[in-house]
């Protein structure tokens, strides 16, 4: 792949779980509602309406409880998404402010999920960001980013892997996990259940990973004007192809898939994009570079 050097050494053993309250078993009673320990959420701005976007569900996939996030219509605030951040959240922008200390280089984040967007245009998501403080530039550098998006429905527990795309060979010093019941344009009633979060594997160097790297091909990559996405067999009719920019914004989506698909990228900004194909609760991810 011209212009891109990939080094991948992925081990199969689990990284020791350093995610605080990863099974959502610990909750604190604030008086009017319960909040999961170590996970900030938006109940703090909705409780005056006696409406909560983050509640404890029971029983969990394993254990006594799980995290249940639901987008809710709030008078004077519009539709507030169910968002939980392992760290701190900005209650104005609904974006994360900080995460938790973390120094490993996992291959992916494992989670057990159920979900249902209120309408097909909405999508629940799990996003992971690993960063390291740059003492010279006095800023945080991105080490790795991964995202999973869910726009169908799953009414029984299943295991999902959110795979990480590494930007460099550094070890991070911080991790942020963001779970949301809706996209940036939330729809009332979209929800996601989450339990048993765990980082799995170890990656050395810069990696590109997909659940089945032979299932789809992406060329040319890097691309500047068009990109061809090919499948090794006719895609299932339930398949959905989505492309997200580095911030996690959905910029392209189609259900009209053939063995060969051409997409015009001439108006896209330079950067790294994630191609995701979802079919029957299976997810395939590919990295796309626009130059």
Describe this protein with a few key phrases.
Jelly Rolls; Immunoglobulin-like; 2 domains; seven-stranded antiparallel beta sheet; 1% helix; globular; disordered N terminus
Order of helices and strands: EEEEHEEEEEEEEEEEEEEEEEEEEEE
| C-alpha termini separation | 14 Å
Task: Report the structural category.
Answer: mainly beta
> What would the CATH topology of the largest domain be?
Jelly Rolls
Outline type: globular
Specify the helix fraction band: under 10%
What is the CATH architecture assignment of the largest domain?
Sandwich
What is the name of the CATH class of the largest domain?
Answer: Mainly Beta
> Which value, in Å, is the CA radius of gyration?
19 Å
What is the averaged pLDDT score? 86
- Main sheet attributes: strand count, strand direction, barrel closure: 7 strands, antiparallel
Strand content: over 45%
Count of alpha/pi helices: 1
Uncertain runs: 1-17
Number of strands: 26
Q: How many structural domains are formed by the residues? A: 2
State the fourth-level CATH superfamily of the largest domain: Galactose-binding domain-like
């Amino acid at each position: 792949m011209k212009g891109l050097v990939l080094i991948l050494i992925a081990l199969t053993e689990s990284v020791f779980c350093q995610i605080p309250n990863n099974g959502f078993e610990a909750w604190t009673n604030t008086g009017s509602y319960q909040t999961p320990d170590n996970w900030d959420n938006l109940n703090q701005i909705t409780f005056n309406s006696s409406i909560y976007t983050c509640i404890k569900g029971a029983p969990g996939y394993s254990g006594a409880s799980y995290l249940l996030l639901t987008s809710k219509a709030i008078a004077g605030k519009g539709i507030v998404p169910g968002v939980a951040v392992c760290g701190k959240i900005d209650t104005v922008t609904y974006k994360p402010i900080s995460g938790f200390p973390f120094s490993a280089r996992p291959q992916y984040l494992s989670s057990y999920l159920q979900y249902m967007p209120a309408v097909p245009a909405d999508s629940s998501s799990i996003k992971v960001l690993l960063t390291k403080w740059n003492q010279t530039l006095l800023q945080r550098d991105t080490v790795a980013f991964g995202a999973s998006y869910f726009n169908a429905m799953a009414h029984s527990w299943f295991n999902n892997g959110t795979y990480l795309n590494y930007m460099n060979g550094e070890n991070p010093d911080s991790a942020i996990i963001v779970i949301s019941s809706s996209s940036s344009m939330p729809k009332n009633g979209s929800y996601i259940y989450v339990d048993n979060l765990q980082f799995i594997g170890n990656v050395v160097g810069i990696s590109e990973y997909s659940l089945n790297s032979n299932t789809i091909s992406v060329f040319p990559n890097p691309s500047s004007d068009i990109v061809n996405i090919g499948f090794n067999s006719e895609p299932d009719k339930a398949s959905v192809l989505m492309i997200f920019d580095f911030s996690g914004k959905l910029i392209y989506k189609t259900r009209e898939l053939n063995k060969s698909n051409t997409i015009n990228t001439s108006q896209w900004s330079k950067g790294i994009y994630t191609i995701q194909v979802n079919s029957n609760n299976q997810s395939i991810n590919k990295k796309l570079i626009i130059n």
